[in-house]
Structures are given as structure tokens and as C-alpha cells.
Amino acid sequence: MTALFSAALLSAGLMAATGAMAQDDPATQAAQPQAQAAQNFSDDQLQQFADASQEIAAISQEYTQRLQDAEDEAAQQEIRLEANERMVEEVEATGLEVDTFNAIGQAIQQDPELLERVQAMAEQS
User: Fold this and answer.
1) What's the whole-number average pLDDT of the chain?
2) What are the helix and strand counts (H, E) for the chain?
3) Residues 114 and 108: beta-carbon distance below 8 Å
4) Which residue ranges make up each domain of the chain?
5) Which residues touch 116 (CB under 8 Å, ≥6 apart)?
6) Quick one: pLDDT at residue 33?
7) Pseudo-torsion of CA 60, 66, 72, 77, nearest 10°?
8) Residues whose CB is less than 8 angstroms from the CB of residue 42 and which lie 6 or more positions away in sequence, other chains included
9) What whole-number distance in Å separates Cα of residue 42 and Cα of residue 48?
10) What is the pLDDT of residues 60-113, one digit of tens each?
11) Are 84 and 16 in contact (CB under 8 A)?
12) pTM for this structure?
């Protein structure tokens, strides 16, 4: 369960890092919420999200300690970038695109039934 909540929260970070260019495009900004609201996720995608979430939670724990031990802001920024790269790799390794992962993360924050469905999938894997 904690992994899913972590992943949902971290999805905003992944989106910020990977969507920087998309944010510059007003058409993309307007289309994103509509596409996410209308999107129905397959069971496979939800399972991939659950699997990636567990890996991302482990990465987050590892890098949280490293951030706390960092000497200065520059070192923290380098650690954040490295952590984000690893999280993106984990998401892509499951077969999901980062945008889809982020959309699911946002959806489970807004839809308790979807969250329960993904939690059940995470418990079975």
C-alpha cells in the first residue's frame, strides 16, 4: 500500500522531469487533463503500475537517505536527477510509458475504487 501512495506522489516528480518540454506547449497542457480523465486503463497497465510502484518505493527510500546525507544543494540536485533516471528506467522496464504511469498515479489519487483495485493487484504480485 505504501508503495502505491509513494508512487502516486512521485508520479508528479516524474512528470515534472519528463514533461518539461510539454509544459511549454499550451495545447499539450490543455489536452492532458482531458485525456487523463477520459482514459480507461487496462488491467495490464494497472498491474504494470503496481509492479513499478513497488520498485519506485524502494528507490525512493534509498535516495531519501542519500539526500539527507548530501553536503550541499548541488549534491542534492545530482542525487535527485539520478533517482529520477532510475525511477523512469523502472517504469519503462515494466512496459509502461512514463506518461501512462503518471496518469495512473494521478487517477488513483482521485479515484478510491481505482486505488483499491491497484492495491489488490500489488498484494497479489
Assistant:
1) 76
2) 7, 0
3) yes
4) 2-14+46-124
5) none
6) 47
7) -40
8) none
9) 10
10) 888 888 888 989 999 988 988 898 889 889 999 999 998 899 899 889 888 889
11) no
12) 0.71
Say how far apart CA 120 and CA 46 lie, in whole Å: 10
- The secondary structure of the chain in percent helix, strand, coil, rounded to multiples of 5, reads 85, 0, 15
Are 118 and 4 contacting, i.e. CB atoms less than 8 angstroms apart? yes
Distance from C-alpha of 92 to C-alpha of 4, rounded to nearest angstrom: 17
C-alpha distances out from residue 121 to 15, 37, 68, 72, 104, Å: 23, 22, 32, 40, 14
Residue bearing cell 509544459: 23
Cα first-last separation, the chain: 12
SS in 3 state form for 43-85? HHHHHHHHHHHHHHHHHHHHHHHHHHHCCCHHHHHHHHHHHHH
